[in-house]
Amino acid sequence: IVLTPINLYMEYILLSYNNFLKEKLDDVSITYGELTYIYNIKYYPSISQRELAETLFVSEANVAKMIKKLVDKGLVKKQKDENNKSRNILTLTDKGEDVFVKINVLTCGWERKITKDLSNDDLFDLKEKLYLLTQESADL
Q1: DSSP 11-78
Q2: Structure letter (DSSP) for residue 130
Q3: What pLDDT, on the 0 to 100 scale, is given for residue 27?
Q4: Which of 19, 31, 58, 107 is least surrounded by Cβ atoms within 10 Å, i.e. has the fewest?
Q5: DSSP 8-state symbol, 46
Q6: Would you tell me how many other CB atoms lie within 10 Å of the CB of residue 62?
Q7: DSSP category for residue 74
Q8: pLDDT at residue 115, rounded to an integer
Q9: How distant, in Å, are the alpha carbons of 4, 5, 57, 76, 104 from that of 118?
Q10: Cα angle 128, 129, 134; round to 5
Q11: Chain CA centroid to CA 35, Å
């Protein structure tokens, strides 16, 4: 275990999560990449396209393409910041909120299944360590 790279474990977990969502989300036409954007727009109210690009380590052009898809699907709306007309603020539409809730419920169920053998303290410690790793990786 010590010699196995962390990213390999992360990949396996992510693949498992993706497969789980694919099986459960037949009625929602959304990709994992789109889901990442929906989660970030939900958790960072009034985030701009530029801030989203920085958060996700992608280009602003990449964000613009993805946001267009989400707007076309009726999941996201963008509006000009009244204080800065060059800044587009992103929010979820009612449909986007509904999709978020559905996916979040499924995600919580998936998380409970894969962490069923962990105590609440161990789960808290795991999430705390993952958060710290996320912060450290963002600084690279």
Answers
A1: HHHHHHHHHHHHHH-TTS---HHHHHHHHHHHHSTT-BHHHHHHHHT--HHHHHHHHHHHHHTTSEEE
A2: H
A3: 72
A4: 19
A5: T
A6: 14
A7: T
A8: 97
A9: 21, 22, 32, 36, 20
A10: 100
A11: 5
* Coil, strand or helix at 5: coil
d(CA 7, CA 109): 23
CA distance linking residue 2 with residue 5, whole number of Å: 8
- What topology is assigned to 6-138 in CATH? Arc Repressor Mutant, subunit A (1.10.10)
Mean pLDDT of successive 10-residue stretches along the chain, which has 140 residues: 90 92 80 91 94 93 96 95 88 96 93 96 96 87
Determine the Cα–Cα distance for residues 46 and 136; give it in Å rounded to an integer: 25
**Two structure tokens written together for 96:** 């986007």
Q: Which residue has the tokens 């992103």?
A: 90
Pairing assessment for the beta strands 84-92 and 76-81 based on DSSP bridges? antiparallel
The pLDDT value given to residue 62: 95
Q: Which of 88, 84, 86 is nearest to 76 (CA)?
A: 88
Record the tokens describing residue 104, joined without a space: 């979040």
